[in-house]
Amino acid sequence: MKAFIFDLDGVITDSAEYHYLAWKALGEDLGIPIDREFNETLKGVSRTESLERILRLGHRENDFSLEEKEKLATKKNSHYVSLIAKITSADILPGIETFLSELREAGYKIGMASASKNAQMVTRQLGLLHAFDHIVDAATVMDSKPHPEVFLKAAEALAVDPKDCIGVEDAVAGIEAIRAAGMFAVGIGERNVLIEADIVFTDTRDLTLENVLTRI
Q1: pLDDT of 102 strictly over 90
Q2: Record's CDD domains (predicted)?
């Protein structure tokens, strides 16, 4: 293995909560209640597809033009950006900084493959831009997860064959994208949820090079 490629939300930092709050607020405006269980189906999915899923939930998928949908997605993002404006290095998930440093010292290339268009901004606020050799986000891909494009682009940018990459994700769609890219999949979460992952850690504190490599 030559490279590790990370998702952002739920792996590097828990900004997923802010996505939930922003979508919940938009849902309330549209008269579509969104609970945490439904929000799980939005994790790792693009903003556009998330909106489509919410509109289908409320049987309102045919109520808006493409332009109106774009405005709704922009409204959600504006709310999200305001919520994450105060994110700092204190919001990095436990063990992640140590793991990134360990990978750098061991000579691995490090990339990010995020479904968020705000990945650069969030990573900068976390003080982690220096830790990644390349960041691919939703603004630079055509197809969202579970399509493998974002992971394949990250591997290409790192000049590493996908089969020599390890992807780290917390969402079902993300794990599916990693597998579709031909990479080794490390899940962060519950084994009974991330069933397609090669290995699963319930806590980011358990992410160490030894713990990963001994399970490949």
Answers
A1: yes
A2: HAD_BPGM (cd02598)
Which residues face 9 on adjacent strands? 13
84, 100, 118 - which closes a domain: 84
* Shared-domain flag, residues 24 and 77: yes
Smallest CA-to-CA distance from 96 within 110, 75, 114 is with 110
Residues paired with residue 132 on neighbouring β-strands, in sequence order: none
- Asked if residue 139 lies in contact with residue 117, where contact means CB atoms within 8 angstroms, the answer is yes
CB 83 within 8 A of CB 17: no
pTM for this predicted structure: 0.84
Catalytic residues: 7, 9
Distance CA 118, CA 32 (A): 25
CATH of residue 63's domain is 1.10.150.240
10: left (phi over 0), alpha (psi -120 to 50) or beta: left
120 and 150 housed in the same domain? yes
Pull the structure tokens for residue 10: 């739920």
Q: Which helix (H) or strand (E) holds 167?
A: strand 165-169
Work out the mean pLDDT of the chain and round it to a whole number: 95
Phi, psi angle pair for 2, to nearest 5°: -125, -15
Q: What mean pLDDT is predicted for residues 2-8?
A: 97
pLDDT attached to residue 115: 85
